[in-house]
Amino acid sequence: MSLTNSLNENVPKYRTSETTTTQQGTHLTPWFDDGNVVLAVEGKHFRVHRSVLALYSEIFKDMFSCPQPQECNDQEMIEGCPVVTLHDTIQDVQIILRAFYSRSYINNHAMPLSVTTAFLRLGKKYLISQLFNEARDSVENSYPTMLIRAQWPSFLRHLGVSGQDKHHFQMINLAREVGMLSVLPVMFTFCCRACPLEYIVEGYEVCGSRVELTLENKNACILGREKLPELYQETFSWLKTRREASECTDRDRCAAGIEATRAEVWSPERSIGRTGHDPFVTWDMRWGSRFCPKCLTYYEREHQRARENAWAQLPAVFRLGSSWEELKRNETAL
Fold this sequence. Notes:
This protein is α/β, with parallel strands linked by helices. It has helices at 3-6, 50-56, 58-65, 90-101, 113-125, 129-142, 169-178, 184-194, 197-202, 215-235, 251-265, 285-288, 293-317, 324-329, and strands spanning 13-14, 27-31, 37-41, 44-48, 77-78, 81-85, 111-112, 161-162, 204-206, 209-211. Strands 1, 2, 3, 4, 5 and 6 form a six-stranded mixed beta sheet that branches. The protein has a two-stranded parallel sheet with strand order 7-8. Strands 9-10 form a two-stranded antiparallel ribbon.
């Protein structure tokens, strides 16, 4: 079986035709005069080097190492180079090729969403581990998978991916598409706490284009939105604890402290869909000033225990898996 017949339509394959030349207007950057293979994408062409493609991509490496039958004489050639058709977007392919040949547009600042998308999508498809892992690291640095880093809204000020829509719909869809499951719980949590339900259901306009969650992500977000208040209640379950007289050195003060903290954390301003109702909020020093030393120690410890328990439940809240460990086991890795 020839290579052309053995590869499905979603991976690169040699194109067969009588065409031997191409119009200058179809040339895109990079186009190297000494290139020895032409990539055809959406009617346009890139002229590059097999050795460079094979260096980065396991798929291209295998493809170029597979000899073609001598009787295959109808392979399309452009300027003496075989043509390989890619079923991807011009933008994604151009970003990947520029990364192969020049790293000058990659810096220590946040990675643009377009670059992140190309690195993850084509990195997974063509087994380009270096680029896939670079983008994965940027995403994972943006969306914590450990409780110690999950401090809203502080972590959102240090996102490793720039150019996202306000509610991160594009990043959510991309993460699911490429199998980055462990970042989805935090993405969904942020979306549920900051995004109007109408947007989750119907999408919203971004720079003249409508951005929507996929059906799978939309359902996960809607179902999880109903569960997050339960986690919040669990985090503050210590407010319902009755302490024995022997365990408290100032019952009046601590009783008043409980009531004051209840009024604060259950206020309407903290309703879901706003910036409040964070199940993972850290202990507030103002709460501590309301209790005697013994109760302070107890309540602070209980609050931390409840936070950790709520965090452990987060993947299940969005029906992504029973635990964080399960999510990580099921993730895409290159």
